[in-house]
Amino acid sequence: MGLVVQKYGGSSVADAEGIKRVAKRIVEAKRNGHQVVAVVSAMGDTTDELIDLAEQVSPIPAGRELDMLLTAGERISMALLAMAIKNLGHNAQSFTGSQAGVITDSVHNKARIIDVTPGRIKASVDEGNIAIVAGFQGVSQDTKDITTLGRGGSDTTAVALAAALDAEVCEIYTDVDGVFTADPRVVTKARKIDWISFEDMLELAASGSKVLLHRCVEYARRYNIPIHVRSSFSGLQGTWVSSEPKKQGDKQVEQALISGVAHDTSEAKVTVVGVPDKPGEAASIFRTIADAEINIDMVVQNVSAASTGLTDISFTLPKTEGRKAIDALEKNKGTIGFDSLRYDDQIGKISLVGAGMKTNPGVTADFFTALSDAGVNIELISTSEIRISVVTRKDDVPEAVRAVHSAFGLDSDSDEAVVYGGTGR
């Protein structure tokens, strides 16, 4: 049997009982002949609690010290899990991200992995140990400071280790039974997907699906590491994410026409009003945003008014970056030459994803018909070969998701989807 990397989220190790349950699952994999490396998140809401504590001490905590604080959460989890495994009669060793060889750039709070040199991990498992690695963290290549990887960092840690160790599979354990056709907390009849391609999963993740983060899937696709998303609260088969479909018995799972419906209410919309409709203006706006290190999502430019020669440009971005974007644009108002700015954080994005839509006429019409029948007004539209996304009012998102999900026949006839831990991660 080969090496397996398993990742357990905060809801899976939220308390002592959860840690003992995870320890039993890891030991079971070891007894089945696998070498096992487990990556763990902080217990429950520990990370959020540490952030709150830091903000009580300092309104703007220094990035370096905040990273030093936040990595404590995963260290607690890894040590407790190693203790629980030893209590079951198996040897386990815990490692921080830096000890595991996770090397990052020097950007605090959202570092990116540059390389993984897992010499100590490989030596540990070769000696017969189960290796427990703290997720979400690494060490800067330049400064040697401790860094954190940002949201979904433990998933990315797990996939990166799986690639570096040439693992058979990276198992992502969460509090749902796999990837569903929609968020089961919004659509109770959401269906579990047996297999999904890297490409479709990337679009779902980028569109707001929270089970897997975009960075994690991108890393897995780059190194062709199969991901198995499953629940740590049940023994059910989950969802396989890979380049090739998995077989169930003698039957190969086929790619669905539509993979699912994702939604995101964490974005805001900025409209730059009264922009001169001439070459270079859009470049100036988005260069300003890029220089502020802000990622944007959807962009729409209106047709310019013939009488004024002015147009409006709207774009979406994370709410957390809204204030920074407004400040950056206001600072460069004279250079860019726009009239005013409008900011709206009461929006939501709904996305329909599926590789089959590019060869099936009528998908777009059915999508907009479903939204129209639900009384949902559309503000922005963005498309790719395998995705249609719209921005609407935040309050309309749940009804819009349910309407589109039903319109494309994605509703399950069986039991309602279960969210064991209550968060979907």
Please explain how this structure is put together.
The protein has 425 residues and is α/β, with parallel strands linked by helices. The chain is built from 12 helices and 22 strands. It has helices at 16-31, 46-57, 63-87, 119-126, 153-164, 198-206, 214-223, 281-291, 322-331, 333-336, 363-373, 397-407, and strands at residues 3-8, 35-40, 92-95, 102-104, 113-116, 130-134, 137-140, 146-148, 169-174, 195-197, 227-231, 239-242, 247-248, 251-252, 260-264, 267-276, 299-301, 310-318, 340-344, 347-353, 380-384, 387-393. Helix 1 (16-31) crosses helix 3, helix 2 (46-57) runs antiparallel to helix 3 and helix 5 (153-164) packs parallel to helix 7. The longest helix is centred in the N-terminal third of the chain and has 25 residues, at 63-87. The model has no long low-confidence stretch (mean pLDDT 91).
State the main characteristics.
single chain, 425 residues, alpha/beta, eight-stranded mixed sheet, four-stranded mixed sheet, 12 helices, 22 strands
